[in-house]
Amino acid sequence: MQQLTRLVGVSALALSSALAMTASASDTSLEARKRWHQAIYQGYQSLETEAEDFSQAASTYCSDPTPDARQAVEQDWLAAFLAWQQVRFVDFGPVEHNNLSWQFQFWPDPKNIVARKAGYLLKSDDQIDKDLIKASGVAVQGFPMTEYLLFDEPLNSGANALPTAKTCRLLTAVAHHIETNSEQLSHQWRSLRDHYLANDQYRDSTIRAGMAALEILEERRLAQPMGLRGTGKRSAYAADAWRSGTSLRTIEATIRGLKQHFLPGLSVLLTEAEQSQLARQIAAQFDEVLDNFPTLHRPIDALLSDDKAFAELQGLYMDVSQLATLVNDQAASTLGVVRGFNSSDGD
Amino acid sequence: MKSMFRPAPLALTIAATLTAGWANTAWSEEKSEPASKASVVGHYADLAHANYEDALITARALDEATDRLIANPTQENLQAAKQAWLAARVPYQQTEVFRFGNSIVDDWEGQLNAWPLDEGLIDYVKGNDYQHELGNAGATANIIGSSKINVGGESLDVAKLSPELLADLNEVGGSEANVATGYHAVEFLLWGQDLHGFDAGAGERPVTDYAAGSDCTNGNCERRGDYLDAVTDLLISDLKWMVAQWAPGNEGNYRDQLTSADANEGVQKMLFGMGSLSLGELAGERMKVALEANSYEDEHDCFSDNTHNSHYYNGQGIRNIYTGTYRRADGSLVTGPSLSDLVEQINPELDARLNAQLDATMTSLGAMQARAESSQNPMPFDMMIAPGNAEGTEIVNSAIMKLVEQTGSIEQAARELGIEALSPDDAGHTF
Fold first, then answer.
1. Contact residues for B89 (Cβ-Cβ < 8 A; gap 6+)
2. Which of A304, B144, B303, B374 would staple B191 via disulfide (CB 3.0–4.6 Å)?
């Protein structure tokens, strides 16, 4: 009996490594970690920039709510959210502190807690400010809340629709919270550099992060809404970002992020292990997955309700499965990375 | 209202004292034969059998208590039924560690323990505080109040409430929140919706919801009784089936298959069950999500406010598997060759550490239980996770951290026992 599982930001640290590293393997691992650290840092910096723009756009819109300003804030929301999708695979390091990862994106949310919390905050007499956002829990603090405020149809056709003053205050306060968190994440990641390079355990942590991201993408973000697991019912609500119709764009961004920020370090390790053929195969498979876009840039409910469109979605699913097999089975076993318990175990 | 239904604190104290005494003595120290992987897997099946037998015994007591309630709906009989439900949860929650890794259990358990559920499928719900799963067409179907329900365009005849019908209605319309059966359905029928949110108080279903004639409140009392009767009968037949799967001497049953297979597979299932329940399920899904989102929708036993005990006995179940011991509902102790014995043979330091971590987890979960049931200002789980509750956050976080720590050692134990991968069976991967 598989049920929806939220992705949990707790991880068991591998406490010891039985592998005796040869000198050359250690050097390669250091080289891989240098690449990873740099690439992930770039990803975090881009998130920081986009989050700043989004926060600015939200303030601009709320002080002068023209149609152009509305369009701008929606676009900047998407740009920031996609920047997060690119680095969403990193599940260790500073993003673990204070549940930063959940603060950026509390997902999935089958019980619609985001809408419930928004309703509560908009109704209450509390002053909406940064302290209130800080104290309001992860369902309030990130991209899903701002997506709800900008895109939810019932909300935006009701009395609390943007740019109502209180809804605007909530939007700008949450956008500001995202901005602050992005800055913090990027700074802390930079400070982690020496520690990350000095500790060989991060080699396996980083590989496992990529593996887990692919597993989550395949099983939770695609198979679940497609009805390929669990009860077999297709449901857009199980996908990311269904309110803004950008579920597939988030998937594309995660794949692009893995290709840009994860693959280079992995390739170094595979090449050193005389598996450059496998490294090339993986790189080619990333491109296979990305070839599905932009054709698949449609809201997921449209793709689920039409059989022809669903067949295209199945094509993407097959390509992602193939990629997950290459990385999680072949590359991982070549590199001696054993899958430990992860947050998506459970039901 | 809550204080009346608390399990006797004295019994819990005694159990805890006994626990402290026997935990550190490995079985093999008293026996001539050292534990082997095969003997450990065999004893694992013994533990499962005893544990499911207890689940069945206590479910039978629940069935009898609900039968008395239906026949004679008095306040005393309602309370007795609630007590019987609480007692039935003690062994059942310990069996949850068998779910992960044993797909025969995982495929079966949804009918008994699925959660969270959209209770509006079953009976009336009140207030605009009812939040059901997004897109669930059956969330307000109200089987008890209808002879026919319509879920997502499908019309279903529910005039005659039987165990078979309820089993068929589970996950009707393809939604996992449409839970028509199992412990939580019974819990809802006994307690009713908890309308208190983060405040003190559980569900307050009046006993007159089962009264005859004009005393009946909220309508359909007779059908409500029929539902409760059918759903408790189904629980018993389901548990009987599972007991038979683990019974010795049943050729071709699950135990037979498990104990004839490569013992490494059995050891892998044991460790996978412990780790998955510790980390992803209990620490993550059941505690961290609820805490970090301040979401009482994610409270496990939300009608009865018994969540702390569900967590406690989940933790106990994990510990049972490692130590090879199980305290039965009648107080007797099942012991035998254990994972602890195997790990001790190869790495005594790791064995001592993991045992200490499992004990520390139980201490943390015990503190959660004690706080939830304290006579002065009890703080059940739904209050612990309220925004700004520093004490509650501390209690829940402490339990989460202990579970995370023990999972690290479970992973290490797996490696040292030569278990290469901790991947689960591919249950549910249908593509």
1. B183, B301, B306, B309, B310, B313
2. B303
